[in-house]
Specification:
By secondary structure, this protein is α/β, with parallel strands linked by helices. It contains 9 helices and 11 strands.
Length: about 270
Amino acid sequence: MSGVSILILTKNEQQDLPGCLASVAWSDDIHLYDSVSTDETVAIARRAGAHVTQRPFDNWAAHQNWGLANIRFKHPWVFYIDADERMTPELVQAVQAAAAKPGDAVAFRLQRRDFFMGTWLAHVQTSPFYMRLFRPEKMRYERLVNPISIADGPVAQLGGYLDHFPFSKGVTHWLERHNSYSSFEARQIMDNRRGQAAFSLRKVFTAADFHERRFHQKELFYRLPLRPVIKFLLLYIGKRGFLDGRAGLTYAMLQAIYEYMIVLKVRELERASS
């Protein structure tokens, strides 16, 4: 018995799902949490013996929080993974060891490797750290998109890598997906303005918890002018994305385009509300 349940979020993932399922086949409790796919995603999961729960998608935080509260996991520990991600053998061993002897931790953070154009984006990747192993009753998410993971208790670090292939369906699909993400981000920015979201410049640099620090960094970033230019310079120069070669340059440019999409959509919402 593995002692760890698997949670896979999907929407029309028939291309990537088989590889993901193969990487988590060590678990005896795999759950597919599906946003009403119209392709073969659900059939593929059921053939692999996974449990399937379906719910129409509304936003990331609400969707993920509903899943943690309502899906009946067999084990006290859950590992969350997306269909375009793969667990490495080293990560599987680390997850099993952590679940067996977690100490006082209620969640574990890991490092993810993003791949593009056959290259590991070792430098230009926006954020390599993700909280993916946790006790579901101790975890919640905030934000409409790119949600912040919040654990109710101590968080420890896992060894091994989670491999991510965000361009597995091509650049066109990535742009379409980020067109949707940018709409959610624009709504989130407007919601934060109306609600006067808590922001601390001090916590941008000093918050002990990575995810709390990340929240305040996002809030600071969305207050800056010329964000697309800043995003490109931060990734390509500040994080030395140029060391990732052509893939690093292309990725930094795509992220700047994504940021500009958010800027334009915020302006649209501002005009609509004035």
